[in-house]
Design goal:
single chain, mainly beta, disordered N terminus, 36% strand, 2 domains
Amino acid sequence: MRREQRRRRALATRVAALTLSAVVALGGQVFMGPAAHAQDPEWTPGHGGQPPRPVSGATPQHPAHQTNMPPLAGMPEHPAMVNIGEAPPKQEDVPFPGAIDFGAEEPFDSAALMGELCQRGPGKPIQGAFNNETGDFLTRPAFVREHGNFAPQGPWEVLRGQCHFPVLGGWDEPGAARRITGVQQNLGTGDDYYELTVTWFTGFDATTSTGFSFSKTVTDEIFSTTKSRDTNFTWAWGRAFEVSRLRAMLIEPCTEVWLDATPIERTFRVQPVFEIFDHGFDVEEVDEAEEERRAEDGWRLAGPGNPFIFAPGFHIDGTADRLLFDSTPDLIISKRQRNLDDKLCA
């Protein structure tokens, strides 16, 4: 029944424009009109003017205007203030109200496409085309070089928009231990005291759940403005430095000692969400797959306002050493000791 209803809606779309909404059918192509706040004189996918996507008071065009919004990373004028939890956040809900899981409607890897769409970072418009069969993505210049005209063609859909990075949460956990001093031996028959030089280099890194790689510039834009409400600690994102100090150690006879340190690391997790300004797709051939793409309850015809799409499970983690109030690393330092061969000792 549902498929038959979709088929009827699809056939009706070929005869005329879909309702009075933001869809215009021209030459076997459907175009979603541009948002009023994101006009771009270069955005002319195969035809002239397009009617604006209707906007209602209930669906503002920018996520920052919505209620019940999580903090957004990458906005220097509004740092994201995040509570620190005891474990990584669960991803059971949408990143923010109204966002659509477009991966549920597509045959390709939606997370891979989301990485391509968000590769420029927060609030940076991107324009390109994706293949609705394979998920391949081409920027507008690359698409024009290969296809000659920036317009929907066969399985290629064109779109323009920008990414937002809502913060799902933050948490602290021990990192990997490593040696932070040299090894000092006591070859005598009595206890010895020695001052070991403790050296630690703070670090930070960003990883994605799929292995997609973002540039350092983009990850800095995302995480440099992400803060915690925790007043006892900060984190070392963007603050790599060396810490050295002396530490006195008791060394028992015929042993060698060194120090290991386990850093407490702080991680913030963001989930990219893509805001669609304009979108067009080819409807020349109406097959079963096309009927699904043109369903009124799908993301392509979502409205009013700009649809926001996301790929469940695709997230970015920014991790850095947790710092104490004096900006020194929060380390768990452990003394390691190993007995030496008696033949080596006096």
